[in-house]
Each structure stands twice: as structure tokens, then as C-alpha cells.
Design goal:
By secondary structure, the protein is α/β, with parallel strands linked by helices. The protein contains 21 helices and 22 strands. Strands 13, 14, 15, 16, 17, 18, 19, 20, 21 and 22 form a 10-stranded mixed sheet that branches. Strands 4, 5, 6, 7, 11 and 12 form a 6-stranded mixed sheet that branches. A 4-stranded antiparallel sheet has the order 2-1-3-8, covered by helices on one side. Strand 21 and strand 22 form a beta hairpin. Helix 4 runs parallel beside helix 5. The chain is elongated.
Length: about 675
């Protein structure tokens, strides 16, 4: 048998790993010091003979991997590491990260060129879209912050008449040194001894490099992309499912209440019941992880793998939604739902983008197995690199848009006549403010700014109450205060009772009776239209979008912009960048969900000239639609009630630099207008 630099493999077997285009190869001509692209007329047989010459060190061979249908059977990533210290850092990081993504056995090659350059090889079971492969590699590069590399295939789609780029095969059996015009040896196209070989993590030559080469399936590539992004591959069939990783399975077992409860039940009783098989097995089957399921139940009494497999095979192959099944069996709390509605998923490449004139992102339905996995990813905070909210984009002609405009115009006019008001948005409860900014308009972001403790949160909770009393569902996300604190302020305002007495518990019997009476009236009338949510470190804009998808919300209030987390796997970003990103995403959310968003912002002290904070306020004012500033105000009586001027500094609905006079009754947490 022919050998490859001492490796026990035939040229035919060697070629089977690197097979690409069969109509053309590239060789190096040592006599002319040039690379020649040769047309192949006898197909695989001729290429195999040239592989033999390559192995024996007679003539170096390069193959093209970009096929005519824009697929590829392998990928080659060449890292320019000649100036790196230590060497091989980038290629080693790439190979290790691929292993984390489930793409094990990426082969690292020490290349032929000067210095210490390295390449990584990925082999595929069947031809895969070059665009998809390049997209995955770009995601890994972004994740690792790698820049200096050449990727083959070099383009998503071949240009007319192009053959793509070629890659020199490893394991060249010789060292083609030659002399230049000055009779000095050159290595530009030559090969140093000990190069073009596969290495292990320690930089040592692999003893049997071709004994364990994994050819990745398209499903494995899709799962790697799924891990890195919100991309969902093509819907799996009930028997096929979608493969997920051990790290996810472990987290699901730890975090999902229903799964955790069932596993504890199995552990305590050491018995595998039919009900648990009927519940757990379909879930793990849809995720193609029955191996993990068997591992969980292997310690139970009377465990018989053959019997369990037979039982699983008899289960109907129907779409499986874990939440509803777990609830029906009593394992999941009734009020809990990790993913109440299907999250929006966009397809970032593939069939929907093959037509260059088609939309870049489109909505589509997908299977419950994938839906469940996506929901669990969200719950476990498996965020993508950026926390940008995913939206759908409608592209329609202006002529079609005019039809919608006319319909909406007459509907809006009728609604305003029936309501007897002259503003189009949701009421703030303050008529002067409504007139100035046209109410809280759908698709607008309004920011109420002012110094800390001035009453911005109280004003927002009051607006929420007005909104709910008009039977407009409203969600209030509070980062600085608890749900009970916000509720106490609302009750103080509704009952006319000092807020401090409520939180201190120093209420008279009459006041307790009044609170109970009004509380019942609110519950029976508009209480169901108010949602108070405590913000936390995971409540970014993306979670807000999921909230809007799940609830029939007509107004979103965020208190405050200063505290919205910008979720990212990168290092901490500066305050202006964080605020700019969040206001942009809120604006995008308002536009495409057609709801108004009201947010508060705590400004800097007047004497504070910190450039970073000044720039942050400038970015927020630029990004929002309405900027309303509450001044310091003045105390007007012994009860510490204040009078404020509310300045409208930016107003997309009309004039700016308008001022409204407000009275703030601090004891009752209530604002009223001064005519």
C-alpha cells in the first residue's frame, strides 16, 4: 500500500477526504516557478494519479472546493499567524471553539509558507451550501474576534466563469527547493520539512491523522449556527427532530421545574412509570437525545433498554409541546409558561435568500420541538452576541400603503369623534400634555427626564392607571422599585391616603376599609388591564418584545432607561453606547409593534459637567420621538407639595419648547394640571 509521509493510507482514500471539483486542479511547476490551473479530462482517476505524485513528493497538488451548484464538500481556513506570539493561537482557538459547538475533529495543518502559518480543515458528509459554511465560520470569527484569515470557499456564489479558489493539499511527500536568479534557495512555493502535516493541540504531528476524521452532517452545521444565533434550521420531521448539546440538557434538567420534578420523582422512587416515559421520552426524542434519556432512567428498577426502546417506538409520532403536556400531568405550575407564544424567528440564509431580489428576512412557522428549544434558550438567557430585538420587515409599494392610510384615516377620525377628543394617541390623563404631544402616539418613544426623586415614576404609574381605566392594557416595567411599592403608590393616589402611611402600616380602621373597598372596585373594573413587572439583569429589550408578543399590550412603560441592561457576551460597554443601543432598540420595537413606549430617564445634576453624561443625554434626545423634561420645581405649601414646569424639548407631533404647569401632591403620589 502507498503511504503518505509514513501515514498508512492509499492515494484513493486520501483523495476521498479532499474531493472537490473534478474538472480542474492546480499544480506547482517547479521549472517555471508558477502555479498552473489544469483542466481534468479523466475525472477522479486522473486526479487520484496526481494525488499519488503529490504524496510521493513529485508535484504539489491543489484542489478546488467550490462546486458549480454553490456547495462544498470541505472548508479550508488559512490563518496568517506569522507575526503572532505564541504561534498557532488563532487556529487552535478556532478548532477548540468548533469542538464546543459539537464540531469535533477539526484538523489543524502546519502550512508550507514562511513563518508559522496554520490552516484548519472541516470535512462534510454531503455537499453543503457554501453560503451556510461561510456564515458559520464568520460567526465563529466574530465570537473569537479573529480577523487575519482566508476562508475557502472564498465566496457565497461563484461568479460567472469562475472556478473559485484552490487549496494546497497537506502531506506533500517532498521539499521542492529551487534556486533563484542569484543562486539562492527560495521557499516561497516550496515546502519545508515537517510542514503540510496535521498537528495535535500541543503542536505535535498526529500519529494516525486519517484514522479519525469526522465528516459533519448539515444538521450538525445547523445546530452550531443555532447555538450562536436565533437561526432555526428546516423543520425536523417527528422522527428526526433537532439535536441539542449536553450543556443545554444539563441546564434544562436544572432550570425547568417540570423536568426537575420528574427527575426527582425517578430518583426517589427508583421506578420509571409509564407516564414519565410518555412525557419525557417524546421530548428527548424530538431533540434526538434518547441516549441522554436512557442515561437518566438506567438506574431505575427493572430497567430494560430493549423494552423502553420498544415502548418509545410505539409512541405516536406527533408534534410534542412540553409545556401543555407537563401542565396536563400536573408537573408544571398552572400559571407558569416559559414561552406562551411562538417567538419570531428569521431565516438568515438558504432558500429564502437564494433569490437576490427576495427579502433578506422572512417570518415562518416551525415545529413544536424547535419552538420548545428556542423557549428554553430564552429562559436560560442563552442570548446572542447582541440583544437586538428581532422584528419582521414589511416592504410594500407606496400605492398599496395609501390604501391602508385612507382606511386608517377614516377609522381614526370616527374614533376621535366618538371619544370627543382632539388627540389621536393614548391619553396621559393630562389634557395640556395630550394636546401638546398628541397623546402617546403608537410607534413613538416618549422620554420623561428629570433629576432623581422628582416623581417620574409616580407620573408613569398615574398614566398607566388612566390608560387601564380607558380599557387599554398597559405593562409597567420597574427597575428601581418593587411591584408592591408601585402598587402602594397607585392605591395611595386612588384612595386619597398618605403613601407613607400605607408603606409604614399606620392606617386607621376607616382607611383600611376604604382601601379594601376601592381595591375591589379596581379589581372588578380596570385592574386586569394593568401589568406591573419587576425588571432584572435579564430584562433587556428582547425580553420586552417577548412580553409584548405574549400579552395584548397597548402601552409599554419602562422605569427607567438608566437601568435597562444591555445584554452582550462582549466586555462592558460605556454608558453612552449602552443608552444609544437601548433607545434605538426601543424605537424599533415601537415602530414595528405599533405601540407607544413611555420611558423615564434620570438626568445629571445641573452643576455636573461630566462629558460622558452630557453625551448620553444628547444621544437619548436624538434617538427618541418626544423628550419631556421636568424642572426642579418649588415647594408651595407645608405638606411639601410642589409646582413643576414640564418642558417639551423635542416633539415629533408638533411644536417644541412648550411648557405645562403641574402640581405634585407628594403624599398621594399624584400629579394634576394647573390651568
Amino acid at each position: 500500500m502507498d503511504s503518505v509521509k509514513g501515514v498508512d493510507i492509499s492515494p484513493k482514500q486520501f483523495y476521498s477526504f479532499f474531493k472537490g471539483r473534478t474538472d480542474r486542479v492546480a499544480i506547482y511547476n517547479a521549472n517555471t516557478s508558477k502555479v498552473i490551473s489544469l483542466e481534468i479530462k479523466k475525472g477522479d482517476w486522473e486526479i487520484t494519479e496526481r494525488v499519488r505524485s503529490h504524496i510521493e513528493g513529485q508535484s504539489r497538488l491543489a484542489l478546488y472546493n467550490h462546486l458549480s451548484d454553490n456547495t462544498c464538500t470541505w472548508a479550508n481556513i488559512i490563518f496568517d499567524e506569522s507575526t503572532r506570539t505564541p504561534t498557532a493561537r488563532d487556529s487552535l482557538l478556532f478548532a477548540q471553539d468548533c469542538s464546543i459547538l459539537g464540531l469535533t475533529e477539526v484538523k489543524r495543518e502546519k502550512t508550507k509558507v514562511k513563518g508559522e502559518n496554520y490552516a484548519c480543515w472541516m470535512f462534510f458528509e454531503k455537499p453543503i451550501s457554501a453560503k451556510k459554511v461561510r456564515y458559520l465560520i464568520s460567526l465563529i470569527f466574530k465570537r473569537l474576534d479573529l480577523t487575519k484569515a482566508e476562508v475557502l470557499p472564498a465566496e457565497d456564489m461563484l461568479a460567472a466563469g469562475s472556478n473559485g479558489m484552490y487549496a494546497w493539499l497537506p502531506y506533500f511527500g517532498g521539499s521542492d527547493k529551487w534556486l533563484d536568479a542569484k543562486n539562492e534557495s527560495r521557499m516561497d512555493f516550496g515546502v519545508k520539512m515537517g510542514h503540510t502535516i496535521f498537528l495535535d493541540e500541543n503542536g505535535e504531528p498526529l500519529k494516525n491523522p486519517f484514522a479519525k476524521i469526522h465528516r459533519y452532517t448539515e444538521n450538525e452545521i445547523d445546530n452550531a449556527i443555532l447555538y450562536l444565533t436565533d437561526y432555526i434550521p428546516a423543520d425536523p420531521t417527528p422522527n428526526e427532530g433537532i439535536h441539542i448539546f449536553d450543556s443545554h440538557l444539563k441546564k434544562i434538567s436544572e432550570k425547568c421545574d417540570a423536568v426537575n420534578k420528574m427527575l426527582a420523582e425517578i430518583k426517589n422512587t427508583a421506578i420509571m412509570s409509564d407516564q414519565t416515559i410518555n412525557l419525557l421520552a417524546p421530548m428527548y426524542k424530538s431533540w434526538r437525545r434518547l441516549d441522554y434519556f436512557h442515561k437518566l432512567i438506567s438506574q431505575t428498577k427493572g430497567y430494560d433498554k430493549a423494552f423502553v426502546d420498544k415502548k418509545i417506538d410505539s409512541l405516536p409520532c406527533v408534534p410534542f409541546t412540553p409545556c401543555s403536556a407537563f401542565k396536563a400531568a400536573g408537573y408544571c405550575p398552572e400559571g407558569k409558561n416559559c414561552f406562551p407564544s411562538k417567538p419570531p424567528i428569521t431565516e438568515r440564509y438558504g432558500k429564502l435568500e437564494e433569490d437576490k431580489n427576495a427579502l433578506k428576512e422572512q417570518w415562518r412557522e416551525f415545529s413544536p420541538a424547535v419552538w420548545a428549544f428556542q423557549g428554553i434558550k430564552e429562559r436560560l438567557l442563552e442570548e446572542s452576541d447582541s440583544e437586538t430585538a428581532v422584528i419582521d420587515v414589511d416592504v410594500i409599494a407606496f400605492s398599496d400603503q395609501l390604501k391602508t392610510f385612507e382606511t386608517d384615516l377614516f377609522a381614526q377620525r370616527t374614533a376621535m369623534i366618538q371619544a370627543g377628543r382632539s388627540w389621536s394617541g393614548i391619553t396621559t390623563g393630562l389634557s395640556g400634555l395630550n394636546q401638546a404631544i398628541d397623546g402617546l402616539r403608537p410607534d413613538f418613544v416618549t422620554v420623561i427626564a428629570g433629576m432623581q426623586g422628582i416623581g417620574k415614576g409616580a407620573l408613569c404609574s398615574q398614566i398607566m392607571e388612566y390608560c387601564a381605566s380607558d380599557k387599554q392594557p398597559c405593562a409597567y416595567i420597574t427597575y428601581g422599585e418593587s411591584q408592591s411599592t408601585v402598587a402602594s403608590k397607585i392605591m395611595a393616589r386612588c384612595c386619597g391616603i398618605d403613601y407613607r402611611k400605607i408603606i409604614r402600616g399606620t392606617l386607621s380602621d376607616e382607611e383600611v376599609a376604604r382601601i379594601k373597598d376601592i381595591s375591589k372596585k379596581i379589581r372588578d373594573s380596570y385592574g386586569k388591564y394593568m401589568y406591573i413587572i419587576e425588571g432584572n439583569d435579564s430584562m433587556g429589550v428582547k425580553k420586552m418584545k417577548m412580553l409584548i408578543d405574549a400579552l395584548p399590550i397597548k402601552l409599554l412603560i419602562v422605569d427607567s432607561l438608566n437601568m435597562i441592561p444591555f445584554i452582550s457576551k462582549r466586555q462592558a460597554i460605556d454608558i453612552p453606547t449602552k443608552l444609544e443601543q437601548n433607545i434605538r432598540q426601543l424605537k424599533t420595537l415601537a415602530r414595528y409593534k405599533k405601540i407607544p413606549i413611555l420611558a423615564t430617564y434620570s438626568t445629571r445634576e445641573k452643576d455636573s459637567n461630566i462629558p460622558e453624561l452630557i453625551y448620553a443625554e444628547f444621544l437619548l434626545m436624538q434617538g427618541c420621538d418626544n423628550w419631556i423634561y421636568i424642572d426642579e420645581g418649588k415647594v408651595v405649601d407645608a405638606q411639601q407639595n410642589r409646582e413643576y414646569l414640564m418642558y417639551i424639548r423635542k416633539n415629533r407631533s408638533g411644536d417644541k419648547n412648550i411648557a405645562c404647569r403641574l402640581a405634585f401632591h407628594s403624599a398621594f403620589q399624584k400629579f394634576s394640571e394647573i390651568k
